[in-house]
Description:
Elements: H1 2-22, E1 35-39, E2 46-50, H2 52-66, E3 69-70, E4 76-77, H3 81-90, H4 103-111, E5 118-119, E6 127-131, E7 134-138, E8 148-149, H5 158-170, E9 190-192, E10 200-202, E11 210-212, E12 223-224, H6 225-249, H7 258-289, H8 295-330, H9 340-349, H10 353-363, E13 364-370, E14 383-388
Parallel strand pairs: 9-13
Antiparallel strand pairs: 1-2, 3-4, 5-8, 6-7, 10-11, 11-12, 13-14
Helix pairs in contact: 2-5, 3-4, 7-8, 9-10
GO molecular function, one term: DNA strand exchange activity
Domain Recombinase: 32-174
Pfam family, one: Recombinase
Amino acid sequence: MSRREYKTINRRLQRGREASLREGKYIAGAAPYGYARVKLPRQKGYTLEIVPEEAEAVRHIFSLFVHGERQNDGSARQHGTFAIAKRLDAEGICSPAGGKWQPCTVRDMILNPTYAGMLRWSYRPTVRRMIDGERVTVRPVNRGMEAKPGLHPPIVSQADWEEAQKIMAGRTHPPLPGGRQVQNPLAGLVFCALCGRSMERRKYRHGRDMLLCPSKDCPTVSSALEDVERGILDALRCWLAEYRIESSSASPSGKVSDGVLHLERSISRLSSALCVLQAQRGQLHDLLEQGVYSPEVFKERVSVLAAKITETEQAIEGARLQLQAEQTLCSNPIASLPEFEGILELYLGLQTPKEKNDLLKKILYRAEYAKTTGGRWGQSDLSLAVFPKIRTF
């Protein structure tokens, strides 16, 4: 009887949580980094409010992952989770745990829809299984979880969050069993526009290599690999020409970019930290004279503070150089275009499929392939949509 009553009460609690979730209320425990959990006024339940300093770090993470960091030559270098973690540590930003950033923490934040104003529940449900006669509790990721709109304000835009999910899903390595080499220059880059599966290379004994959708129920028609490869290169050239025309005709808006604002705040934060360190170094002599520190402890503390001061000064100098480059590039948007022409010309001179695949992944997120009518390139309805890696303003 008690077990049945417990299950009944638990079902009621779960229905209450689901009802609150549909209303957009935050039903989890601790708030994610960048938010604080607050009580809703004059009603039951909780929601989230933005913590400005932490939210700035969240926006910085998404900006580095989605848009990349502009270099002195005008190109935008993409950052992975490991590079972002190192960058945050160098800028003196503390992790949610108060220590160093880990790549897995950055990855989980990028995948969290809460930052786009959504709520998720049962993302990692608790599942009990019997393994070798023992009850084991695991928390597998629920891929079928659907996010619900929340009452809390978003930290990043929906467009940036969706773009981050596309980039994260596209950052896969072609499976190569047995130490084989990449034979498809488009491996991991071309996806079926109908079913979303990654297109595969099929080698025939007599004839050309073909690119086809592996789904047996998909009506997408295959094409010769070299035709698709040539079509992607042509599409990139056309896209680059159109982008140059739009960039040259656009008038400057005078709007300060998010990168400039973040770098200015980083310099201000690092300068404040430097002032604190210098004040601590001045107090060391007083502690030595008062007998609180022995000469050995004094030397050790001076050495530690000197290293921290040097590290902070280097971080400030690096941030100032980045700020100058960012301001220069913001004044001339077309200069932010990467050297696509040089990369495309270099591509034609490469010999191995692996070299071509690595080079294409530097300038292309993905390409979507659509074809439902047979025939060669000029006779079919083949269409290719390319998504280049470039930061637009």
